[in-house]
Amino acid sequence: MLTDLQKRTLFSIIAIPLVVSSVVLQGWTFFLLISGVVCGALYEYRTLLRKKEIVLPLFFVWTGGLLICFNYTSIGFFFFKQYFEFLFFILFLFFLLYEIICGQTLRVIERSAAFVFGLFYIAYFGSFLLRIGEEMRYSYVLIMMILVWCNDLFAYFSGRFWGKHFIVPKISPKKTWEGWVGGWAGTFLAGFIIQWFWPMLLSGWQSLILSVLIGVVGPLGDLFESLLKRDAQVKDTSQIFPGHGGILDRIDSQLLCAPAVYFYFKIFCI
Prior knowledge:
Blueprint: H1 4-25, H2 27-51, H3 58-71, H4 78-82, H5 84-102, H6 108-135, H7 138-162, H8 177-197, H9 204-232, H10 247-269
């Protein structure tokens, strides 16, 4: 029987090369990865909602998520990009028509709000991974992922060995200030190594600022996703990844870090 740490290690050995390869290959490969991850996370989000007796049709959730992904790629979906707002409006009209035909007056406000929020939180924020690669450089996507991974890794081990002071025990009983500091230290270390070996990609200041951003925003994404799980009274969003939980459990930090990194480069570096 494998321990939780052994499961995490085995999964990382398999998953990280696949993710890195998709970023390096760019184009269709990276688009399929991100759109697949978005659809998987939306499915888990829908499962969380069912725990609260809020049922969203999978068709609307996935179609909305894919439309958003299509809108932020340049690999040939010009039709979707040109008519994105129109198609999204049509989708929303059909969602409203579905609600009216079903006639379920109970929780209609919750369903409508959950539908819009899920697309914004998961699909729109997730699409910033595509936007960083398409509008800037795919190397920035990889750098961001490495920094987030190091933040999670160092936070996990720091919290496990030295964690005593909990941040928000009601939301996440295992998140400690010691883990947060350790995660931040790991992010700084990874940023320094990247800047040292590849100075053409990042300057010293850029590395420092990115480390600060991810060290702050990443844990916020983790805590917010934990808040959603506490509301649904589940430990993990699914069990698809041994030792790691679900897709949403794995990308919670990335979902907030991607927009933060995108806007940093967009506003201050380009």
